[in-house]
C-alpha cells in the first residue's frame, strides 16, 4: 500500500479559521451577557417599581422599630423574627430613612443570590462547563415562573427571602457529605443556613426533618456511628443553633407573645376572621388544589417536573454502574414533597403559601440533569434549552416591561413612598402626635410617630374581635368597634387611608367629623387628613 500524499496546510487559513471560531464564541458570550443583563434589569425594575402592597406594611414597620419596641407584644408582628432583624439591621448599619427602598433592594439582592446559587449548584454538579448554563438558566426561569414575579417575589415580605438561605443550606450539605471525609465546618454552615431560612418563614420548617434524616442515613456504609455523630450530626445541630439563636432569644424573652402571634394567630383568630369575611378566599381542599395547580404547574413548573422525570428515567438504569450517588436528588424530592404537603395546612389558601417547594424543584432539575448518561446528554441539553426558551417567552413581557423602570428611579415605589412620607411630615409640621393609619410605612418614611396598635397594618387590628380571651394580654391593638374612642383619647396628627377598603371608611369618618382637612399625596391611592392646629 502506497504512502498517503502529503497535503500542505496554509497557516493563514488556519489562523482565519481559528479567528472565526473565536469570534463566534465571543459573539455567543456577548449575546448571553446582553440577554442576561436585560433580564436582570427587567427584574430589578419590576421589583423597584412594583406598587406598595399591604403585605409590606407590617414587615417594614417591624424592621424599623424592632430595636426599639418588643416585636410581638407591642408591634404585633406575626412571623418569626428573621426579616425584621435582617432588614432592621440594614437600617441601623446604613442610617437610612428610605425604608421601603432599602427593603426592595434587599429583595433584589435575594434574587441575585438565588440566581448565583443555582449557577453554583450547576457548576458543582454538572461536569461539562458548556452544559452548566442551560441547567442553571432553565432552573432559574422555571423558579421565576411559579408566581414569583407576582407580589410574593416582588414585595418586602418573608415569602422570597428564605429561598437563597434554603438553597445555600442544601448545596453546603451536599458538598460536605460528598467528600471522602465529611467536612464538619461546611456541614455546620449548612445547618446555620437552613436555620436562617426557617427563621425567615416558619413554612420552611419542613426542611429541618428532611436535613436531619439525611444526616442520619446518608453514607451508612462508609461512616461509623461515632464518626457520623462527630463529623455530621453534631456540626449540623450546632450550626442550626447558631442560625436559630435570634429565635431562641425571642422564645426566652417573649415566649407567650411569640407563640400567640405566630402559631395561635394563624390557627385561631386568623381563620375565624376569614370564615366570616366576604372578601375572595379559598377555604376548601378542592379550592386549595386549584391554587396549588396554578402555582406549581403553570408555565415552567410543569416543564420542570416533566424534565426531572425524563432525566431520572434516563439516568436510573445505569446509576449504580456509573457510581453517581442518588441521595442528593432523593433529598431534593423529599424536600419538595414535604413542602408541598405542608402548603395545604393553612386556611384560607393564598398563592404565596405554595412557594416553598419551588426552589427544591429548581435544584432537582440541575441534579437530575447532572445524572443523565453521556449517550443522551445532547438530547437532555436540547430539552433544557427548549424549556428555557418557552419560559422566557412566557416571562419576557413582564420582565421587559421592567427595563425602563430600572432606569427611572422616580418610578420606584420606595422613592415615591418616601416623598409622600416627607410631604406628610411637612403637612403635620413634624408633630410629635402619632399618625393613625393601617399603612404605617408612609409616616415612618417621614420620621413620624405611629400608634403601636397599628404597627402591623390591618393584620392584628382586623382580628381584635376574634382574639381568644387568654391571648388578649399579648396583643397591643385597637378594635374597629371602639376606634372613635381610641383616637379621641389620643388624637392623631394626621390620618392616612387608601389601602384597606374594609376598614378605611371608619378612619375617614373620624377625620371628617373632627375637622381634619384632606390633602393630596403623590401616591394616587393615598388619602391624607391633617389635624386642625389645636389637635397637633
Structure explained in plain terms:
This protein is mainly alpha-helical. The protein is built from 25 helices and four strands. The chain has helices at 11-49, 54-65, 82-94, 99-125, 132-144, 151-154, 162-178, 184-200, 207-217, 225-243, 245-253, 255-261, 263-267, 269-276, 285-296, 300-315, 319-322, 327-343, 358-370, 377-406, 413-428, 441-445, 458-461, 483-489, 504-513; strands at 435-437, 494-497, 517-520, 527-530. Strands 1-2-4-3 form a four-stranded mixed beta sheet, sandwiched between helices. β3 (517-520) and β4 form a beta hairpin. The model has no long low-confidence stretch (mean pLDDT 90).
Mean pLDDT: 90
- The end-to-end distance, rounded to whole angstroms, is 109 Å
Strand order of the largest sheet: 1-2-4-3
Radius of gyration: 27 Å
The geometry reads as globular
Structure in a nutshell:
The chain has 536 residues and is mainly alpha-helical.
List its traits:
globular; transmembrane helix; transmembrane; single chain; membrane; 4 strands; mainly alpha; four-stranded mixed β-sheet; Glycosyltransferase RgtA/B/C/D-like domain-containing protein; 536 residues
Task: Give the secondary structure arrangement, pairings included.
Blueprint: H1 11-49, H2 54-65, H3 82-94, H4 99-125, H5 132-144, H6 151-154, H7 162-178, H8 184-200, H9 207-217, H10 225-243, H11 245-253, H12 255-261, H13 263-267, H14 269-276, H15 285-296, H16 300-315, H17 319-322, H18 327-343, H19 358-370, H20 377-406, H21 413-428, E1 435-437, H22 441-445, H23 458-461, H24 483-489, E2 494-497, H25 504-513, E3 517-520, E4 527-530
Helix pairs in contact: 1-4, 1-20, 2-3, 4-5, 4-7, 4-19, 4-21, 5-16, 5-19, 5-20, 7-8, 8-10, 9-18, 11-12, 16-19, 16-20, 18-19
Keywords: Membrane, Transmembrane, Transmembrane helix
Transmembrane segments: 30-49, 97-121, 133-154, 184-217, 229-251, 295-314, 326-345, 357-376, 382-401
Protein name: Glycosyltransferase RgtA/B/C/D-like domain-containing protein
